[in-house]
Amino acid sequence: MRIHIHANDVSLSTHQPEGTSIQNIFSGVIEAIDGDSHAASCLVTIRLKSQTLLARITYKAAANLELAVGQPVWAQVKSVALAEH
Hints:
Blueprint (H helix, E strand, L loop, with lengths): L9 E4 L10 E12 L5 E7 L4 E7 H7 L6 E6 L1 H5 L2
Antiparallel strand pairs: 1-5, 2-3, 2-5, 3-4
């Protein structure tokens, strides 16, 4: 089965999230941080066990989290995002 998840619906955390309402949390490793069509945002490619997930976040958020290629992260996807597609 294939599931399409919009990059806008993915948030990132550098620590395993706790006490959150988001039920879909995946651990992975950052493969790439690339520019986006909007000057203030970037696309972060996360390698999950056997899948790739994209997160669209602001450059400010990436800098605040000190994101880097090879870094482990947790990707969070709201269930409503999955139900809408």
